[in-house]
Amino acid sequence: MIENSAGFIEQRVSEFISRSKELGIKVTPQRVAIYKELASTDQHPSTEIIYNKIRDYYPNISLTTVYRTLETFEKLGLISVVNVLYNAARYDANLDPHHHIVCTQCKKVEDVYDESFTNLDVSEKTLGDYKVEGYSVLLSGVCIDCR
Ligand SMILES: [Zn+2]
Ligand SMILES: [Zn+2]
Fold first, then answer.
1. Looking at the CA of 145, which ligand is closest?
2. ∠ CA(62), CA(80), CA(39), 5° rounding?
3. Which ligand has an atom closest to residue 102 CA?
4. 41 versus 127: which is more confidently predicted?
5. What are the structural domains of the chain?
6. pTM (2 d.p.)
7. 105-114: per-residue pLDDT in tens?
8. Distance 136 CA to ligand 2 centre (A)
């Protein structure tokens, strides 16, 4: 659960701005608006959802711009992508280690915090030649609204 207070969002946004400056990417008002939209929710929105909200402030913005901006943020590690099978990418401003559950009916994505997932014991045989840098667990199920 994230705390959706204004102060919390502002804190995320100011961290985002200083991180962007460190990484040498331009901090435009439009980029900040896109990040802030994502930082204000724990719903793991898709590009389309963010785009529809951003249009309230930037009526001329294109879906492609929002898409590319999110992609840039993701590559720079400013946000993360929740991979939902057979569905569009869903974005997350929460970079704390956590996992997700997706409703197979309405595709809602919620955060899961479980210590046992955080200490998964994966055998080296499974990993082959990879040096694992991180992982997240994606659970699927049917949410209370869809049941
Ligand atoms: Zn559901
Ligand atoms: Zn999340």
1. 1
2. 70
3. 1
4. 41
5. 6-91 (1.10.10.10), 97-141 (3.30.1490)
6. 0.81
7. 988 899 999 8
8. 10
